[in-house]
Amino acid sequence: MSAVNDTKLNSAVFLLTGIPGQEDVYLWISIPFLYVISIIGNSVILFIIKTDPSLHEPMYIFLSMLAVTDLGLSIATIPTILGIYLFNSREISLNACFAQLFFIHLLQCIESSVLLFMAFDRFIAIRDPLRYASILTLPRIGKIGVVCVLRGAAVVVPLPILLKQFRYCRSNVLSHSYCLHQEVMKAACSDITVNSIYGFYVSVLMMGLDSLLIFLSYVMILKTALSIVSQTKCLRALNTCVSHLCVVLLFYTTEIGLAVIHRFGNNSSHLLQIFLGYVYLLVPPLMNPVVYSMKSKHLHARIIRLFVK
């Protein structure tokens, strides 16, 4: 009898949540539309960087890594988004939910690592421009990409494995249109202490450490730029960092905001959780191509030529 009960508990489904107020059709249509725009924007960035040899430089290669990650995040979440908004399908099986949260957290960790290496790229370009190309060679950048993926996989793989061991007998209604580890584990009726501690460890190790190293990189960048005698060259050097700094602020602000809400905002508004959930995964992938295409004159001009033809 116990085995039957366990089977029923572990074959349960989670119910995903959309934005309350189904009568507002335009709002429901706009969410999937923005995801599609995000996918198109990052795809255009990748296409231009791949087809334009003049953009085969370290800065743009790192940008292409960022675009791939953002594209992956959009693709990982859009099936459940479309399922809710277009087909009114809110159910997701345990295994599908675990797979989705694995890819979401993996891609978030990879993006954090890429942003860290992009800060390192800007530091090298300003600190030692003559050796910039010899330090960040294509093979070395390729190895950096592999390290980003392996680093993310190493810390994220245990999350679905640990969740798989639990029984789920509490409320299975999730606050978002996709699965996140910090929310799924709360639906378990087992002891989640290990998951809670490990999830906090992952957040501190990946996001906390990366954001600290990015901050230190910008301290050194600012120190190096201010030592340049020519004010024009100093401003030009700092201007190359504006795009990356905007992307960093977008990424970590939404990341930290949602983490705080889930860990300490038990009494927070349900609508606020839903809103931050969309901001968390929609705004960075949507805005990253916009920020870089506006700040990079070469990329901006290339995009205009692509659509004017």
Rounded mean pLDDT score: 82
Strand order of the largest sheet: 1-2
Shape: globular
Low-confidence stretches: 1-9
User: What is the CATH class name?
Assistant: Mainly Alpha
Largest sheet: 2 strands, antiparallel
Tally of individual domains? 1
Q: Share of helix among residues?
A: over 70%
Under CATH, the topology is which?
Rhopdopsin 7-helix transmembrane proteins
N to C succession of SSEs: HEHHEHHHHHHHHHH
Beta-strand level of the residues, as a percent range?
Answer: under 5%
| CATH architectural category | Up-down Bundle
Number of helices: 13
CATH superfamily: Rhodopsin 7-helix transmembrane proteins
Helix-and-strand structural type: mainly alpha
In total, the number of strands is: 2
- The N- and C-terminal alpha carbons lie at a distance of 69 Å
Rg calc: 21 Å
How would you characterize this protein structure?
With 309 residues, the chain is mostly helical. 77% of the residues lie in helices and 2% in strands. The longest helix is centred in the middle third of the chain and has 34 residues, at 94-127.
